[in-house]
Amino acid sequence: MQAVNFFFINALLFASVILVVGVPYLYMIQSDPSDSRNPEIKKIEAIGGVWFHLVLANGLIAALV
């Protein structure tokens, strides 16, 4: 179980690094900042969703360990 927890913690840290580096980059390369549904914003939302679910999974696994 600790190996699974270790995997999720590392995945969470990696996703956090991607968010910290990727979100400002994706905001800078927007083709049309006035359009709230452009592809860059969709990528940011997808990365944020993955990060959020990793946080939830990590919390559940940490409660079981």
Task: Explain the layout of strands and helices.
Layout: H1 2-28, H2 39-64
Helix pairs in contact: 1-2
Please provide a written account of the structure.
The protein has 65 residues and is an all-alpha fold. The protein contains 2 helices and no strands. The termini are close together.
Task: List its traits.
65 residues, mainly alpha, 82% helix, elongated
Could you give a short description of this structure?
Helix content is 82%, strand content 0%.
Structure classification? mainly alpha
Overall radius of gyration: 15 Å
Mean of the pLDDT scores? 82
Q: SSE string, helix = H, strand = E?
A: HH
Low-confidence stretches: none
- The proportion of residues forming helix, as a percent range, comes to over 70%
Q: What separation lies between the terminal Cα atoms?
A: 7 Å
Number of strands: 0
Major sheet description: none
Shape: elongated
Strand content: under 5%
- Count of DSSP H/I helices: 2
